[in-house]
Design brief:
3-stranded antiparallel sheet, 52 residues, mainly beta, 3 strands
Length: 52
């Protein structure tokens, strides 16, 4: 699974870890995140993330 980095704050979304603090289970791919999911650090949307 690919890692995605927020171009604003540098947060890295790791699908293996998910985002459990915001209800995203481990194993959830970036593509399967809800459209309204926000970066847990800077609150920007998925559109500012880039695959790394």
């Amino acid at each position: 699974m690919e890692l995605y980095e927020c171009s604003i704050c540098g947060y890295v979304y790791d699908p293996a870890k998910g985002d459990p603090d915001n209800g995203i289970e481990p194993g959830t791919s970036f593509a399967d995140l809800p459209d309204d999911w926000l970066c847990p650090i800077c609150q920007e949307g998925k559109e500012v993330f880039e695959m790394i």
